[in-house]
Design brief:
The chain is an alpha/beta fold and 281 residues long. The chain has ten helices and eight strands. Strands 3-2-1-4-5-7-6-8 form an eight-stranded mixed sheet, covered by helices on one side. Helix 2 links the parallel strand 1 and strand 2. Helix 4 crosses helix 6. The radius of gyration is 19 Å and the shape is globular. The two termini are 34 Å apart.
Amino acid sequence: MPRLTPLRYHGSKAGQVKRLRLALPEHFDYLIEPFCGSAAFSLSMIQEGFIDADKVWLNDKNPSLMAFWNTLRENRYGLQDELRQTMEVHGLGNRDLFNEVYSELANPSGNIMGLAKARFIENYLGRAGKTSNRNNYNCPIKSKYGLREKYIRPLNKFGAMLEGSKLTCMDFKEIVPLSKNTLSYLDGPYGNKMDWDSYGKEYTLERQVFAEFCNKNLHKGLQLISYGDNQESIDLFSDWNIFRVPVARRSSCEVMETELIITNYEIPNADLLPDEWEQVS
């Protein structure tokens, strides 16, 4: 199956895109991801022809992540060259290289290319694609990841796909739907007060704050939300359409969990949704 994103990402929706596609509105003319992360959802929408790249807005508060997406769009060949040169020196990667990129992510030098390269290298050397601490080094010889040509080569394709898109690094609360036909896909943190230390910086987002933002924009556009399955979230979105759906987590693929898919619009042909979709409200 073709890869939907060039990044491994903690909480990526790459494995959930088919399910999310069932919840799309009948029509939307612009797509925003305030928490873009791996951008798997938006990239899949572009690849499948649901939307053109110039009608897509990717945002994330993480500076190194947005440095990667900007560099991928503007200078993908240069990024590939930099990564291949690093491979010539470090091979698949090693602890010294991991420590080097970890330091760059924690204390950026101001070089956008260097930050983008560090983001990508760490993504393939860190456990689960994240940096919570220096001990998250994942020896590439013992895994399928690491600096490999098969991960670098597709960067050209993904960079081309993003041409014309809007990329920003802002707090999600600054994002405003452009019209009533704007679809915002929100995949925020699932915890009540989750520390986002996965990328060298800490971010927190309480469920109440997230819900207030979504309710503020309730009638300003179309909203599709993936969220953790818990009673507090259900209560906070009581006026919305909520479905409980099964998901298989990569970290525990033997265990089927559930999450909530929440919309402020009626899902077209909702009566044809799979039987495992349980309507909560």
